[in-house]
Specification:
Chain lengths: ~325, ~250
């Protein structure tokens, strides 16, 4: 197997009874990559992560972590990876320090080294001054940070993050994103599931979009956007706009759809220059003053909605 | 050191870390106190009222009751709770085998069972002055009984569910018949032949007979037979728990 590959997935499939949760998905993640796994709720993201981290047996297919088969060589595969699940799974009755040391013992980190790493991680995650506080007194964001710190105590080669910032305060989310970048810069491969498109756009080298258990698209965020030229848009704000005039905007040549966004109108098109000139002509004809006029490439959110089958209005 | 020996050493250390963590996290939780600490004493005193028993016979029955309820209560409390909070996934994702994990969990029940049983044992010997006929045998029987009953608790706990209630209630209901047919409340020698035949189905029968051997110096069945059955029960329950745990994981629990 190629030594540059951190995760290889071949036809991975999982049924829950008759329900097909993951349907013959295949992809590869390079070592040192941040790979985003996007999808709506129930798309199969968490099931995929559970299979890749040996927590769930696949019904069919194979998956390898650093060339170790997760079904046949789970012990070796587990040594390479760590998982941060969607719900923080820390021990509320123990202190932050005890949680970290317990985690280090599970991965057999020598005790002196474990203490050094625990100190460093607690400081890096902003928990240094609360290290002897029992975790049940922690906020959701603090528990999340501790969960990630516990996953890092044995310095895994591949880190699985399941919805790492969902439901967190802005400060914790920013801290976690910065840490993801730092870890990646230090060589850790990151596999993260998210339904926050902007987060994936901001962090990931490549993203896969999963929908109804199947991979619908997989590429770099920019290439995915480029593949969906029809969701480029022109956004215009007028000083006033009658409802009848709004309707007329929809009929301008080159416009596919129009979406009202607050005091602005967004006109989706595959030909922004044509629509720009039409909008300027429209403003002159109706004696409207343009307060702003911008063009936008397709956002990852729009790409996501397209590939998951929902229409951009 | 060979790879296998190193792995055994490593997994033993991991198992002990899990056991110590569970003791710190779960011993003082209300279900453990209720089902593991209070219930055997309540049962013993409610069934002992107005019954004439020698101190040695009372001690043997109390110790059997304690190891039975206390050791078997840990698994059904801890595993479903850990499934619900997601902390079991932390253990399952760590580089250790499911067998090691179950051994660690069974140790929690074993230590709990022996620890609680030591309280009346020490009180009986030091305060009441109960004379033990075979103290080493009593210790061995407490350890082996705790092993068997802790593994029984794990068997209940490995049923695929995330709700402790779905395991605690059925496991309590299943333990009652094992208790009633065991000879704890009606001595084996006073049982009818069919009742005694039925009593052989309960591992508690062998535990309490072994403890009567140790405290009074005379039981109904041979010591070696009781020891062998308890040892076998431990192995069978642990193996069945392992199979059930693997089945639960295949279902996604």
């Amino acid at each position: 197997m190629d030594e540059k590959i951190a995760i290889r997935v071949e036809g991975l499939t999982r049924y829950y009874g008759d329900l097909l949760a993951v349907d013959h998905i295949s992809f590869e993640v390079q070592r040192g990559e941040i790979f985003g796994f996007l999808g709506p709720n129930g798309a199969g993201k968490t099931t995929t992560v559970r299979m890749l981290t040996t927590l769930l047996e696949p019904t069919e297919g194979k998956a390898y972590i650093h060339a170790y088969d997760v079904v046949r060589q789970p012990y070796e595969a587990k040594l390479q990876l760590s998982i941060v699940p969607e719900t923080s799974n820390v021990y509320d009755e123990l202190s932050a320090w005890d949680n970290l040391i317990f985690s280090s013992r599970l991965y057999r980190v020598p005790i002196d080294e474990a203490h050094r790493r625990a100190e460093r991680l607690l400081d890096a995650f902003g928990l240094g001054d609360r290290k002897h506080t029992k975790v049940h007194d922690f906020s959701k964001g603090m528990k999340r940070r501790l969960t990630i710190a516990m996953a890092l105590i044995h310095q895994p080669k591949v880190l699985f993050l399941d919805e790492p910032t969902t439901g967190l305060d802005v400060q914790s989310a920013i801290l976690i994103k910065a840490l993801v970048r730092e870890l990646n810069a230090a060589g850790t491969t990151i596999f993260m599931t998210t339904h926050q498109i902007e987060e994936a756009n901001e962090l990931c080298d490549r993203v896969a979009i999963i929908n109804q258990g199947r991979i619908a698209a997989i590429d770099t965020p920019e290439r995915l956007k480029a593949a969906f030229q029809s969701v480029q848009s022109v956004e215009v704000a007028f000083d006033r706009l009658e409802p009848t005039e709004g309707e007329q905007l929809r009929k301008l040549p080159g416009v596919n759809t129009v979406e009202k966004r607050g005091d602005k109108m967004r006109l989706y098109t595959s030909d922004p220059p044509q629509v720009l000139s039409e909008v300027i002509r429209f403003a002159e004809q109706h004696r409207l003053k343009m307060l702003s006029l911008n063009t936008f490439g397709p956002s990852l959110e729009e790409v996501f909605l397209r590939v998951t089958g929902e229409q951009v209005k | 050191m060979t790879g296998l020996l190193r792995r055994v050493r490593d997994e033993s250390s991991q198992a002990w870390a899990i056991t110590v963590k569970d003791i710190r996290v779960y011993y003082l939780t209300p279900p453990m106190i209720m089902f593991g600490l209070l219930m055997p004493f309540f049962m013993f005193f409610s069934f002992s009222v107005k019954r004439e028993m020698t101190p040695g016979a009372s001690l043997a029955r109390l110790l059997a009751l304690i190891t039975f309820f206390t050791a078997s209560s840990a698994g059904p409390v801890i595993i479903p709770l850990e499934r619900r909070t997601g902390t079991l996934d932390r253990l399952l994702a760590a580089p250790l085998s499911t067998t090691t994990l179950l051994v660690a969990k069974s140790l929690v029940g074993i230590i709990f069972g022996i620890g609680v049983a030591m309280l009346p044992l020490l009180a009986s010997v030091l305060i009441i002055g109960v004379n033990l006929q075979d103290a080493p045998l009593l210790i061995v029987s407490m350890v082996l009984s705790s092993c068997a009953f802790s593994a029984l608790g794990l068997l209940f706990a490995s049923y695929p569910t995330q709700s402790p209630g779905n395991i605690m209630m059925p496991s309590t209901l299943l333990r009652w018949p094992l208790l009633f047919i065991s000879g704890i409340f009606i001595p084996l020698e006073e049982m009818s032949s069919w009742a005694r035949a039925l009593s052989f189905l309960s591992p508690l029968t062998y535990a309490q007979d072994l403890m009567i051997h140790a405290t009074l110096g005379a039981g109904v069945q041979a010591v070696w037979f009781n020891l062998a059955i308890l040892f076998l029960s431990f192995g069978v329950f642990l193996y069945a728990a392992l199979r059930l745990q693997n089945w639960s994981r295949r279902l996604g629990y």
